[in-house]
Input
Amino acid sequence: MRLTLIASVLLAAVNVDAFAPVNTGRSVTSLQSTVEATDFNSKLEASLAKMAARDAESKISADDLKVVFEDEHIVVVDKPAGVLCVPNKDNNPSLSQAVFDKFGSESGRADKMVVHRLGMDTSGLVVFARTEDALRGMNTAFRTRSVTRTYEALACGSIEEAEGTINLPLMRDYEFPPYMRVSTDEHQKALIGLSVEDVGKKLLERPKESLTKFTVVGKEELEGNAVTRVSLTSISGRTHQLNVHLAAYGHPIVGDQVYGINGEAAANGGLEAGTSASSASADLQESIASAAKSMCVHAKTISFEHPVTEEKLSFESAAPF
Output
């Protein structure tokens, strides 16, 4: 059975009208935000401090790199989990710096090699550019969505559908900044009256249409707990999209300490309950969280046209879980 969560379903189930202006019968200027800017900024500061402490645990050097492909223009490496893709403001060890240290670049700058990135706790394939031509070509390929990527993950519980599509718009979460959540009318209205000066630009961006396709690879167990191995394709490529969508679906990614059970972000992607009929129970999620040693999501495949030679390239990396 193919599951597709489409706009009509969303409107009935969670009252989402994320892409239309809010219309409440009153002028926008007469509405007051339910968000207190000082409370939001205090929460944001605390979360960023916690993230900075976590970033400080990143460790990698040029000798640690697992190189999948390299030529004079690009390098493809297999990133381990627990490593920053790019340095933070404290310049903690990162994958991009390790690649620069080993291979160098035409520009003489590590930041000019970065064309995409993975989250710190996500493992898998990452491409870096060594030349200006490669940088321009790869940036264009990602911007035009000419790069095909699939991820593999373990999801909590037993997903009944063989495949499906999760179509849920995303927004920044004012209750749990700087994380993401599914956008609803209620949470959009809560932002009315706020300004960029109050809370910054990102929180006030329009909801982002977000689409994730999944295919069940197999049913497994983690220390006696039911989990499902899934192949994931992020069509829209939003921030934390796979994590939020699977949590909202009711089958959060195993080991996800942000969007999973008792995580730092809103439960169920910000919805009252998971949208799947087979949503993993809270007890099951708790048991899996106790058994998980790390977050189980991996960038498994990547295919693209070489930015200079135009050769069609495709790479695959086995998931470490």
Notes: The first strand starts at residue 2 and ends at 4.
